[in-house]
Amino acid sequence: MTAVDDRPMTTDVVEFFENLEVPEGYKAELLRGEIVMMAAPDVVHNDIVEAVLDQFPRRDWRRLQVQAVAILQETSEPLPDLVLVERGVGPRSGQLMPSEVITMLVEVVSKTSVERDYSIKRSIYAAGKIPAYLIIDPIMAQCVLLTEPKGTGEEADYQVQRVTKFGDSVPLELLGIKLDTSEFETYQGVRAHNRP
Predict the structure, then answer these.
(1) DSSP state of 88
(2) E strands along 40-165, which residues?
(3) 159 burial level (CB within 10 Å; 0-12, 13-18, 19+)
(4) Which of 18, 36, 15 is nearest to 27 (CA)?
């Protein structure tokens, strides 16, 4: 289930979002002034997040789940599936992690998040100058690594895109890791989409 509040962004909406009580089993994020509420993810989704998290050594990386991200000049507080920050960098408390300290964000596509993950969040994360954005897509059995962010606002985008099929390693040179995707599963009975 996805619920979108499409009223114009005002200080009242930001305050409302910050005080929103989200029902158990749901999460909410603010994306360019829209409040988006999502149901709990599929087990396939959670297994993929766990498999990715396990490949980043805790001694080197803060591997933050359900961590809201603060992006300067954006009316957004996205809640990526995984936020990777170098150990010892960034704030130790608070609800928001500044985009300037983030090395990579990971989103695992759900059955209802294709447009948000491939388009809206791509632009938001590029505007925040996040060096690497990894989209893991269990619908299409592929990973899309986006690097070299450029631009501002809705025109922001990543200049480099690399698509890797599940089963092949995703080279994450920026993080010094080759991501093993051999454990990644796909959703069953979900229709394919036409994203890269």
Answers:
(1) T
(2) 61-64, 68-70, 82-86, 96-98, 104-108, 132-137, 142-150, 157-165
(3) exposed
(4) 36
Evaluate whether 100 touches 130 at the Cβ level (below 8 Å): no
Q: 137: buried, middle or exposed (CB in 10 Å: 19+, 13-18, 0-12)?
A: buried
Are the CB atoms for 44 and 55 separated by under 8 Å? no
Token representation of residue 28: 């909410």
Cα(127)–Cα(134) distance, integer angstroms:
15
Structure letter (DSSP) for residue 1: -
Q: Which of 29, 21, 20 is nearest to 2 (CA)?
A: 29
Task: Report residue 166 as tokens.
Answer: 């599940």
pLDDT in tens, the chain (196 residues): 444 444 344 556 667 777 778 777 677 778 877 777 777 778 999 999 999 999 999 999 999 998 999 987 888 889 999 999 999 999 999 889 999 999 999 999 998 899 999 999 999 999 999 999 999 999 999 999 999 999 999 999 999 999 999 999 999 999 999 999 999 999 998 999 988 7
